[in-house]
Every structure is written in structure tokens, then in C-alpha cells.
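Archive entry. Fields below.
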Amino acid sequence: MDHTSELLQYITGNFAATNNIAVDAETSLFQDQVLDSLNLVELITFVETRFGIKVAPSEVSIDNLDTVSRIAGLIERKLVTN
Amino acid sequence: MSVANPLGFFARNASRMPAAAAAIFGDRKFTHAQLLGAINSTAQSLAGHGIGPGSRVAIYSDDDFDLCRAYGAIWSVGATAIPLNISYVDSALNAMEDTITPDLGLYSGTFSPVRKRPFPMQKLVFEPNDDSGFTPVKQDDDAISVVLFTSGSSGLPKAIPLSNRQLANNALSTAQRLGAHSSDRILITTPLYTTSSLIHLLTMLSVGASIVVERGFMFGSAVLSILEKHNCSGFGGVPANFIRLASVADETPPPTGLRFLMNSGEHLPVPILQLLRSKWPGIQIFCAYGLTEVAGRLCILDPEKVDHKPGSVGQPLAGMTIEVLDENGRQLPHGVTGEVHVSGANLMTGYLNNESANAVLTRSGFATGDFGRLDSDGDLFLVGRADDVIKVGGEKVSTLAIESAACALPGIDECAAVAVDDARMGTVPWLYYVSADQQDIGNRIKAHLRKTLPSNHMPVRLIRIDALPRTTSGKVARKELRAAA
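PREDICTED_STRUCTURE:
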């Protein structure tokens, strides 16, 4: 499974179902209130443990995290640098 | 007009500066006169329902404008306002209702009253042009104006009754510490049913200043643009807000009108404090310590001291006293850590319908459960808690509530929730569990907890271990679990 599908599966299974929101790779996770700040920490924790990367506080930005495709992009950039 | 009651703030502002901005909720902006008009028309409808002095009105809403006018209207008819956190699961709301026995429930926003209740539920509908001439009942400054809930160590929220005078005192003395004046405007991002947000609102109104409430999660850049857009002079938040703000402060100057930041709810990590100070040296930072039991704020550090006393929450507000005592109730010398006890005019008289919890009220005042030490100037440094309560996003979270919810799931042998420092959020709960069950148990725990716990209690990480570490006395060694995190 690629990163995007895996993230979508995680977000749909954990957050979107509770809020009854359809999520695709370009859904704004925060503007559409799929996630709140604690969910964000949960998601980052999942990403860090699943992909073995570290997300620094300064990387917690809308550019890196607002959509599934942006998060997948962050993971790919980090995996390349590692 | 008396200002020993919060309704007096709304009324005084509406008569002295009717056309000035009072509150901005998202894209809805209200002057002081409009706010009082909205309160009056809501009060008229409450009076029509037979609500008056002595009545208790529960509020279920995630709409901050509705919360604001409901507070004012309930005070206007002389009743007690009881805001409930609607993100709580229904069984918790039910238990809270049993404690407070409301005469009426007001609801709006995304809340829908599915369960049949033993009291009527009324939808809050706003008619913007209704400028009714409702005359408020004469305010009794010592009447109970609110009952606010705080999480207890047992996990069941405790109800705290506070008087008009206590709320007004807390707001006025906070305003004095902040050096607030009518041209100030504070941004908050937490709902008005929390004690902290309610006190932010009243602090601003007590000096004729204004408030901006923007809900929802925001990255640092979004906070900056809202501060700039509304020309805010202050931002009141919890550590998670300031951690994200610090990440943009590195490369962005502070918004033009910004004068101060105010941290409350939990400890602001010192590195974040220092980063904000070094990048934005002209901005005052107020580090506060508060408790619902004392009507909101308790201590605020003088911002002049923040560079040489980082980590301190300063000294108590006017009329309040703090002492650091040992387990036998003896006062400890400066520099020695013990439990913080508080007394003074803003201290609650006791939790409602909760005799066992009232054991924390002793001869020396209220045993806060917070541990700390005073320095030789009398500035307080907090070091931790005596019980199993942790702070997440500024709100109290009971680790016991997390554990009992998880242990209710078949297949979980034992578990322990601990607070872990998170560089992005401040403090977050993790759950360690022991289970002989199959691989999928983690997902089942998550799904189960999401259904049974308020969202701020949700552990951000679940970790399966073979056995919980224990101390020699058989207690779960939480320190060890925290250290392993």
C-alpha cells in the first residue's frame, strides 16, 4: 500500500467515521474539521512510529499537514533525507 | 451600576461605549449595545419560561455567541448558568445533570437533545432585530452565578458553584495584572464553556475591552493572520497554541498591534517561552496558574520577571493567599516543595453534592493537589500533581477515567495511562496495556475509547507491554512508564 492510501485508511478508520466526513487525498483536514489538535498529535505519533521518521515542532505547519497528499509528501521527503 | 457582578460589565459597557466593538465570533461582530440587546431578548424568553432567581439553567452549545448571550441572559433573570462540555459522552452529561438538577436546558449549535430529560430543553434561536427593553432583576452579588465543572481524579467531573462577586473579582484583578484597558482586544481559541475562556471574556469586558473567539485547530500562521486581521493586542492560549506560534515566530515579526501573550491551563515549556522572548522581545508574556475552584486565575507572573524566573507562575491575585504545606499541614520554608494550599475571597464554598471531594477543603483553605515551591520573593514554581489528574490542552484529564474505560473492554488485563511531554502539544496521554488477546486489540481499544471518552481524554498512543512495572508497594510505577516514553 502506498503512503497516501495507508494514511487515508488510518484517518478514515479513526477520525472521519466519528465525524461523518468523506475524506480524500485533497480534503483539508483542519478546515473541514476532520481533525482537532489532539487528533493531530495522534496522527503524527502514528506517522512517526509507522514510517520511522521524526516530525519536528517547526514542521507542524499547514503546508506539511493540511491534506493527506501533503502528509504523504512530508513522509517521502523525510524518508529520502534519512 | 455595580461591577461586583458580571452582568454589570455588559450593562456598563453598553451605556458608556455602545458603538464600540465588544465581541467577534468568527465572522459575526457585536458592539457592546448589540451584545446587551441580544442578552435582553434572550432574557425575555427565559423569563417567559418561568426562569428567575434561584433557577438553574444548563447550556449545551458549541456556538460561542450563544454561550455568551446565554450567560448574560441567565444572569439577567437572576438564575445560575451551567455550561456543559458537549464533547462529553452522554453518560457523563447525564451524571452531570444529576448533580446539578437543572430547571431548563438551552441548546444550540451542533448539539441535539436526543435523550429524554426530566427538565425541558429549549433551542436557542437568535432574532437579531429584537431589541427588547427587558429590565434585569436586581443582581445579588453573592448569588451563585455559575456552576462550572472540572475533572476530578475519580474521573467524574465535579461541580463548582461560584458567585457573581467571585467571577467579577477574578476578572477585575486579572485585568489589573494584565494592565488591560478599553482599547485591548484578546484572541482566544477555546470554547466559552471552559472556565479559562469565560474569565478571558469577563476580564476584557470588565475594562470595556473586546474579545475575538475563533474556534478550531489553528497552525501558527493562521493565528498570526487572525491577530493581524482583528488588530488584537493579546492572545490567550494554552501551551499547544504557543508551541505552534513559536514555530512561526522564528521567521515572522509579531503582528502590528500585539502587546501580550497569556498562557494558562498548564505549564508553558521554558524553551518555548525563551524562544518567544528572544524572537519577539517587545511582547509581554503573562504566565498564569488557575483553578476553577478559585473562579479562574489564581497566580500570574509579572512579565518583567519572566526572563530571570522562567517557569514561575508568580504571585496570587488580590484577595488570595497561597501557602506551601507538608503532608501534616505545616508551612514549608521557601525553596522546599510541598502541596499548594489556597485561601481567599474567590475560593469556592465547596463542590456541589459531593461530600467526599470536599475533604480537600481544610482549615488552611483548599488543598489544590498541585505541588510546588515558593522562592524568597513569594513567586510560585509548580512541579507536578499529587493525584492522577493530568492537563491536556489546558483542561484537566483523569488518567483513572482513561484506565477504567480501557479496562472495561474484554481482553484487557490491566492498563495505565500516563502524561507524556510532547514538543508539539505540551502534555498528552499515552496508554500502556497488558493483553493476551490477538494482534487487532489495539484497534479495538481505540474504537472503544473513542466511543466512551471525551476527545481530550483520548490517548495519542497505545503501547502493549508484557506487564506493568510496579513499585515495591505494588502501585503502578508511573514514573518508570513516563521515563520509558
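CURATOR_NOTE: Residues 3-81 of chain A form a domain with the Non-ribosomal Peptide Synthetase Peptidyl Carrier Protein; Chain A fold (CATH 1.10.1200.10).
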